[in-house]
Write a structure and sequence with these properties.
37% helix, 13% strand, alpha/beta, globular, 215 residues, 6-stranded parallel β-sheet, 8 helices
């Protein structure tokens, strides 16, 4: 069966932003005297900001500040890395979106990031009009790997679940999508390569995905 709809994760899929989030967290941890291994932060990819900060504070036994303060300080650490001039769409993304639009494939975004961030990114890349629906982490109670965001995305996409697929770069995102009954594509174009082995298929680029004739 040809796919009629595709739901994109954002970070690591629409743009190679995962290294920016990782560096921001590393910078933040250094203010506590913690020199973390970047690979140790991979487990938190795909989570909401609040959930990832909770997990980091627990792992590194940070008790000197409240969770809300830690989140605010984390956001401040991101600011340098997320200036407009530093942001680029993932290589091949614009061509892939045009390819899908020509085939009348319905598109959505389901991201753990917040609404303001994803709207900013879509507008910055001038691709917002490609997407039928956009749902963000601050619109659900439970973040990935919980399936809530993808269950809601399926409802908003107004297509049968068997005609939809998700493109994700993280284990947490793939787990969430699979729990929602969706086909999953593990995307491995980011500089941070995560474990996507549980996906139904894996690709290294949008060009490779276009050659598979799934749509």
């Amino acid at each position: 069966m040809m796919l009629k709809g595709l739901i994109f994760d954002c970070d690591g899929v629409l743009s190679d932003t995962e290294p920016k989030f990782t560096q921001g967290m590393l910078d933040h941890l250094q203010t506590f005297g913690i020199n973390a291994d970047p690979a140790d932060l991979d487990d938190f990819c795909g989570m909401t900001l609040r959930r990832s900060c909770e997990e980091v504070m627990t792992r590194y036994r940070i008790k000197s500040v409240s969770l809300n303060q830690f989140i605010q300080d984390e956001l401040a650490c991101y600011e340098h890395y997320f200036q407009d001039e530093y942001m680029q769409p993932m290589p091949g993304l614009l061509e892939f979106l045009n390819y899908l639009s020509e085939r009348k494939v319905r598109l959505g975004v389901a991201t753990s990031s917040n609404t303001a961030y994803i709207r900013w990114l879509l507008n910055l890349f001038d691709i917002e009009d490609h997407f039928y629906t956009v749902i963000a982490g601050d619109q659900v109670e439970n973040g990935k790997p919980d399936p809530e965001i993808y269950l809601k995305a399926v409802e908003l996409m107004s297509l049968p679940v068997e005609e939809l697929a998700v493109i994700e770069d993280s284990a947490n995102g793939i787990a969430a999508a699979k729990k929602a009954g969706l086909k999953t594509i593990g995307f491995k174009a980011s500089r941070i390569i995560q474990n996507t082995s549980s996906a139904d298929l894996e690709v290294k680029s949008y060009l490779e995905l276009m050659k598979l004739d799934l749509f």
